[in-house]
Design goal:
heterotrimer; A mainly alpha (245); B alpha/beta (203); C mainly alpha (228); A: 245 residues; Four Helix Bundle (Hemerythrin (Met), subunit A); 78% helix; C: mainly alpha
């Protein structure tokens, strides 16, 4: 198993494997998201209380979930890179940040649109929204710290420490609606027991969740390949690759 | 006693240390030579434990030097290019702090060492009032007071006049004779007794 | 064979040194304090000086001013030592870097944060905070400024190798400090309204306990990376 991990962690092998996997991830994500969107936006029944307005859930909830998931992946990769000195791990962490920004921004924007419809306000300083905003700032801080260092190894390591420190925010965001009286609704899917959402609405949501996850995989693999190319630009294996093509 | 194996280090794209290795036993000095930018300072800092290499290991008394329980840091003293003195503290206060972090030190010992290095009159002057040569001598006083077994010196003769240079070489001789080890980087030559010194040329 | 200095003795030595250094430059000592007072006067100047309105914004103003003045002072935590090479000597002394960083943070707070806490009643009075709410404010700021120092030590350590890092430092520390702001202002708010402020104060205490125990480890790791 260690040989497998070391193989995966070696840039030329990773580059090759990622190139093979990306189209699969991409197409599966496209199908899942297309199906989920059409089903959720058109075919799912309207909500009893909110009418058709609730359908933004199909983009909002997966975005919010992915914003947290991306941070965890980033922190994990950063931690692995820091402890075991695996170059590809650092490349993964670096690639996650912009994706995380995109998901967080998407969650905040779709949330604002929904909030305007449901609560009559674009923004509220309640725990969940505030901690999600903090997540956005953490991503920005991570990217800013990275770019402040000229030396890539120091940039990798310093930002890894920052990513790990910021992980504290993730459970705070997730449990903010439980711990405090929040305007935001409590979890209806990711809880113990039966989900408190109708199955006809649930299935497209699940499709979107999986679709977003796999989309994340596809985008991440592509970005990491780009990172690897950038970091290893003077390495022999890249020259051989270019010579072959 | 000190064994360095196959150190590789990159600074960005530059492969600064390319498989550097050596052994050093008590009473031996390794003169690290090379042009500016060859990696002398980087090598010294890596051996001291300030910089992590991408590959390679440093062994002290047959244990990994940079593991937490090796007691390596306590047995070495590093004098860098700058003297590591706080400008607002006097030479005496600087030494009390820097040496006091390692072990208890008597006032008299500090006074004697400063005198040995010819800067006794600087003891109560703030470090910013000292010349570069005087600061270097105070840094060397720290070296002596640290009672370290391994001396890691980066360009120790900088800013010193001829008398100062002779003093440093004399101190090195004494240290080696007492069974100490020394790792010295200079871009010029080092006039040390050749049966105790080896040379490592970095390119 | 000389006696090796223990960790506590080393911490005491470092705190004494830092305090001595701070007091050798008395003018620089006052800067964060003056900044705090100036910021608290800016708000009544720019907004309405009506007592009732001031009282509403007082908690927020006090806490934001404390936060900003702490951030201003934070860059100096490690910069000077990193620049003259004494930071690496401390790492090489064999003493645990965690203890060294915690010691520096404490000394830094003593010189920067504590005076702020002491002068906060004055600032609070000028903003119309009733004397009855002052104790809660002081308690909150005491815990808050200390927490900020610890959080800030992580940011300072992460940016120690970066030139002109003050803005980056603020960018890194502010998101971590937001919960502090929320609870601290809330505590003063409740006290002004005459209600019990125990809940936010306990939360501030929890944040302090968390940061005081965890931040030095993160900061120590960052220092090692920074002197690379």
């Amino acid at each position: 198993m260690w040989t497998w991990i070391h193989k995966f962690g070696s840039p030329p092998h990773f580059y090759r494997i990622a190139a093979l996997l990306t189209p699969w991830f991409g197409w599966i994500a496209a199908i899942l998201i297309a199906t989920g969107l059409v089903w959720g936006l058109v075919f799912a029944p309207a909500d009893y209380q909110q009418g058709d307005g609730f359908r933004i859930l199909y983009v909002h909830a997966p975005s919010a979930w992915m914003s947290l998931f991306t941070y965890v992946v980033m922190a994990l990769a950063a931690g692995i890179g820091l402890v075991w000195r695996i170059k590809v791990a650092h490349a993964v962490a670096a690639s996650c940040a912009p994706i995380g920004v995109a998901f967080t921004a998407s969650a905040l924007v779709t949330g604002a649109v929904w909030g305007q419809k449901m609560w009559g306000t674009w923004w509220e300083w309640d725990p969940r929204l505030t901690s999600e905003l903090i997540l956005l700032f953490l991503y920005f801080g991570y990217m800013a710290l990275r770019s402040a260092y000229d030396d890539p190894q120091r940039a990798d390591r310093a930002s890894a420490v920052l990513a790990l420190v910021g992980v504290v925010n993730v459970p705070i965001i997730h449990y903010s609606v439980v711990w405090w009286n929040s305007l935001h609704q409590v979890a209806s899917v990711a809880k113990i027991g039966r989900p408190s959402i109708a199955p006809e609405m649930l299935v497209p949501l699940i499709l979107m969740f999986f679709g977003f996850n796999i989309l994340f995989g596809a985008v991440l693999l592509t970005r990491v390949r780009g990172e690897v190319l950038l970091r290893e630009r003077s390495a022999d294996w890249i020259r051989a690759l270019v010579a072959k093509s | 006693m000190l064994k360095v194996e196959n150190l590789h280090l990159w600074r960005g794209e530059r492969h600064v240390l390319r498989g550097v290795g050596f052994r050093l036993e008590p009473g031996e000095l390794l003169h690290v030579a090379g042009a500016n930018g060859a990696g002398k300072t980087t090598l010294l800092r890596t051996v001291a434990g300030l910089v992590q290499p991408e590959q390679g290991e440093v062994y002290w008394r047959n244990k990994l030097a940079h593991s937490l329980d090796s007691g390596y840091a306590e047995q070495l003293a590093y004098v860098a290019h700058d003297a590591a003195l706080k400008s607002d503290l006097t030479a005496y206060e600087n030494l009390v702090f820097m040496v006091g972090l390692r072990h208890a030190v008597a006032d008299s010992a500090i006074g004697l060492t400063l005198a040995k290095l010819g800067v006794a009159h600087c003891a109560n002057l703030p470090a910013r009032a000292l010349s570069a040569g005087q600061r270097r001598r105070v840094a060397l006083a720290r070296l002596l007071l640290s009672e370290a077994v391994l001396w890691i010196l980066d360009e120790p003769l900088t800013n010193l006049d001829a008398a100062g240079g002779t003093l440093v070489l004399g101190l090195l001789d004494e240290h080696l004779a007492a069974g100490g080890l020394a790792l010295v980087a200079t871009h010029g030559e080092l006039a040390i007794r050749s049966d105790r010194a080896r040379r490592l040329e970095l390119t | 064979m000389t006696v090796r200095t223990g960790v506590l003795a080393a911490v005491a030595l470092l705190v004494r040194r830092d305090l001595r250094l701070a007091f050798r430059r008395p003018s620089q000592l006052c800067n964060p304090l003056v900044f705090f007072l100036v910021v608290t006067t800016l708000f009544p100047l720019s907004l309405s000086p009506l007592a009732s309105q001031l009282r509403d914004i007082a908690p927020g103003v006090l806490w934001v001013a404390a936060l900003l003045s702490s951030l201003l002072a934070l860059e100096g935590l490690l910069k000077s030592d990193a620049e003259d090479g004494t930071l690496e000597q401390m790492v090489l002394s064999g003493q645990p870097v965690v203890a060294m960083v915690a010691a520096k943070t404490l000394a830094h707070w003593f010189v920067g944060g504590l005076p702020l806490v002491v002068i906060s009643p004055l600032a609070g009075l000028s903003l119309g905070v009733p004397p009855a709410a002052m104790w809660v404010t002081v308690e909150g700021l005491l815990m808050g400024t200390l927490t900020l120092s610890f959080l800030g030590s992580v940011g300072a350590a992460l940016t120690v190798g970066v030139r002109r890092s003050s803005v980056l430092l603020s960018l890194l520390v502010l998101p971590l400090a937001m919960p502090l702001l929320i609870f601290g202002a809330r505590a003063t708010d409740l006290a002004i309204a005459g209600e019990g402020a125990a809940a936010p104060l306990y939360l501030l205490g929890a944040l302090l306990a968390l940061s005081a125990t965890l931040a030095p480890f993160a900061a120590a790791a960052a220092v090692r990376i920074g002197i690379d």
